[in-house]
Amino acid sequence: MVKDIMSKALPTETKGVRVLFGEFVNIDYLYSYLGTIIYAESGMQNIFILENKFWGRMLFINNNLQFTSRDEFIYHESLVHIPVQSTPEGSIKKVLICGGGDYGAARELLKYPEIEEVVIVDIDPKIPKLVEEYFPELLPEDPKDPRLKLIVEDAFVMVQKYLDEGKAFDLVIIDSTDPDISDTGITQELSHALFGVKFHQMLYELCPKGVVVQQCGTPFTMKNIFTETYKTFINVYPAKEVFCYRSNVPSFGSDNAFIMRCPYPNPEIPKWKELPNVYFYSHEIHRSAFGLPKFWREALAV
Amino acid sequence: MVKDIMSKALPTETKGVRVLFGEFVNIDYLYSYLGTIIYAESGMQNIFILENKFWGRMLFINNNLQFTSRDEFIYHESLVHIPVQSTPEGSIKKVLICGGGDYGAARELLKYPEIEEVVIVDIDPKIPKLVEEYFPELLPEDPKDPRLKLIVEDAFVMVQKYLDEGKAFDLVIIDSTDPDISDTGITQELSHALFGVKFHQMLYELCPKGVVVQQCGTPFTMKNIFTETYKTFINVYPAKEVFCYRSNVPSFGSDNAFIMRCPYPNPEIPKWKELPNVYFYSHEIHRSAFGLPKFWREALAV
């Protein structure tokens, strides 16, 4: 199936506040979007939705772009299909998504009939509601899929609860905002705890023989997040089971990094014969995703 | 060797015109740079140099970014080392660069002692002069390297002259601005002729058993340039010798495409044991570069 996401303008709304919005990528460097703000709210997190002729609708949390209508599929397919297909076919039955209240990762997981349970645990109740209203394409093919459960809760608290109950998962996906690890270690993002050693020790217990994958930003502009997340992983999991892969999500500017604990051998070789209906992912791109630039390798030599 | 290009601010000048410059990537979508214009001229091409805290110095031609101090090495290493290392060790002795007046590609080529001759043919005499003054790091390690020749001439004219003289090359690199192939086929870029069938027919004659590689923009935002360049290649060269690879140059926003004619088998396997002093390129990244997203493959199914 062909999805025409390249080079053409998308339809836009006419209501709302017309702005030139600048997203700071780094000091003195911004991505700028002419567009219309069709939703804005300052709550637990500052959220707004911008409509732009090129990107379609764009969701921002705390002034940082989370995804766009045009290229969210690249991010979500990379986050889900690479870890799933790294395992022997049929290994993944129960999946926990920490964050991911936008449903995008769940949509991809539910494409596999072999997957029996998908739980989203997101701290912010607004995200799923906004997606239902403004980004219906992120919902699973069957939005009432009985395999899907959405829990509004701090993932840290929920994981502890699952541990107390003796529950286990085959795959844990951490799909959160970037943790804003600055040079001085100061952070204001809600997601910060999801990048730490304590949280991963709990996940290791919750998912002792399974896969854990975490999005960790764009290393070229966020080197600290990349190295700190990797350090957390090798601190908690056996170092030889820790891998890094990358994906180019155009609206993120430079390659996004994903750190993964995978106890199965050779995750760079896709293992499922079955390929769901996808637009970015292929076995070709799977193999390619594990090849890293020399300066990424150097940043991981910690 | 480690090059610290990630996450830190670069030193800047204080003289010049302070601006917020917006580079249009697409309709209603811009990259914006706060910076100082330290050089500007409207000549054969409109050229200016912006100094920005994050990117360092940035060269713009006709308002389009050509390269930055911070990440030009990724572009130039991808443009040079992938084609060179796709061939059996020692196959490349004589190289023609069409465009490339910034010396970056030549700098990379001259790292190989096996390469005997590198000719740059650039139409614009200003580019080499500006690089010598403002981007000395793009010059070859030995700027007086006797293997290097710079010719200010239209590459189209020069290639015809070489054909008349019976000269031959082992590798031709087309390192030009994007050709601005719009939906309606209108173009104003000097580089336009370098993307056409006539030019490649001449190159095929000039380099009958060698490699020809052409940078062809970022397909996510310039789908037409990607498909048109590929069509030119399969029109002129044997289709089974035409390959595509990609590289993520962060200042370009999304993955850049390179189309290559390579008559040697399996170009995705690097063949040289020797690895010059590089910061991005590795055999790992070489193999990975040939894995393309599903939607790129679909855009190439022409």
TrEMBL record, chains A, B:
Reading the lineage from the top rank, the first entry is: Bacteria
The UniProt entry's sequence similarity note says: Belongs to the spermidine/spermine synthase family.
Task performed by this protein: Catalyzes the irreversible transfer of a propylamine group from the amino donor S-adenosylmethioninamine (decarboxy-AdoMet) to putrescine (1,4-diaminobutane) to yield spermidine.
Gene name as annotated: speE
List the taxonomic lineage: Bacteria, Pseudomonadati, Thermodesulfobacteriota, Thermodesulfobacteria, Thermodesulfobacteriales
Which residues are listed for spermidine binding in this entry? H76, D102, D175, S176, T177, D178
Q: Name the Pfam families for this protein.
A: Spermine_synth
Q: Name one GO molecular function term.
A: spermidine synthase activity
Reaction it catalyzes: S-adenosyl 3-(methylsulfanyl)propylamine + putrescine = S-methyl-5'-thioadenosine + spermidine + H(+)
- EC no. given is 2.5.1.16
Among HAMAP family, the record links this protein to: Spermidine_synth (MF_00198)
Q: In which pathway does it act?
A: Amine and polyamine biosynthesis; spermidine biosynthesis; spermidine from putrescine: step 1/1
- The protein here is known as Polyamine aminopropyltransferase
Cite the active-site annotation: D175 (proton acceptor)
Q: Which UniProt keywords apply?
A: Polyamine biosynthesis, Spermidine biosynthesis, Transferase
Q: Which GO terms describe its biological process?
A: spermidine biosynthetic process
Entry's Gene3D superfamilies? Vaccinia Virus protein VP39
Domain PABS: from-to ranges:
18-264
Q: Where does S-methyl-5'-thioadenosine bind?
A: Q45, D122, D154, A155
